[in-house]
Amino acid sequence: MKIKLIIITILFFTISIKSQEKLPYYQIPKMAEKYTAQNTVARMIDGLGFRYYWATEGLRGEDLAYQPKGDGRDCQKTVDHLYDLSNMLLRLTKTDFKQEIEKEKMTFADMRKQTLLNLEAISNRIKVSRNLSEFTVKKEGKISVPFFNVINGPIADAIWHAGQIAGFRRSSGNPINSKVNHFTGTVRD
Fold first, then answer.
1. Helix boundaries (H) for the chain
2. Residue ranges of the domains in the chain?
3. What is the mean pLDDT of the chain?
4. Is 177 helix (H, G, I), strand (E, B) or coil?
5. Whole-prediction pTM value?
6. By the number of CB atoms within 10 A of the CB, which of 25, 47, 140, 164 ranks highest?
7. Closest among 96, 162, 117 to 24, alpha carbons compared
8. In whole angstroms, what is the distance from residue 39 CA to residue 126 CA?
């Protein structure tokens, strides 16, 4: 009986510490003082990170299982897709960032954390780049994909899907924290 109590206490303590781990994008980081192409795109990624943070904060099992009528993805599959988009953006921005756990072994919390960390790494990589053209993707010397396609492709797609998660959770009865201000990227006390 004593051993069970100790194990339960240790498990509770471990879960409590893990849940208190600070993840990026609770609020949007301070803006750069100078407007550059790199800072503007990094700010788009930061805005995505903020929206994703709050769209996924406090999701319950029933929220993750929610699926609108029809053939669309359920909320969990949309979370999976956003994780995949964050990895695509890592590749397209040539950001070397280690994934802590294999996708197949990730829980929702693991995937949420890794997606947020991926977005932070992408934003940081873009901020220190000399020119966005260094991210132009060349495939076998034949096709060149300009960075504009990264903006209107996976970045815009990820913003769209973060909004879907926000809508899904509202439909399943768990709306986003009303203290979140998407305009300023802050949270009221």
1. 2-19, 37-56, 61-65, 75-92, 108-127, 147-150, 156-171
2. 2-187
3. 90
4. coil
5. 0.87
6. 25
7. 117
8. 8
Residue whose C-alpha is closest to residue 64's, from 162, 163, 185, 168: 168
What would the pLDDT profile of 32-52 be if each residue is shown by its tens digit? Answer: 899 999 999 999 999 999 999
**Length of the chain in residues, anyone?**
189
pLDDT at 72: 87
Rounded Cα distance, 87 and 162, in Å: 15
Residue 64, token pair as written in the block: 């993750």
Rounded CA Rg of the chain: 18
- Alpha carbons within 13 A on the beta-carbon side of 186: 5
- The domain at 2-187 falls in which architecture? Up-down Bundle (1.20)
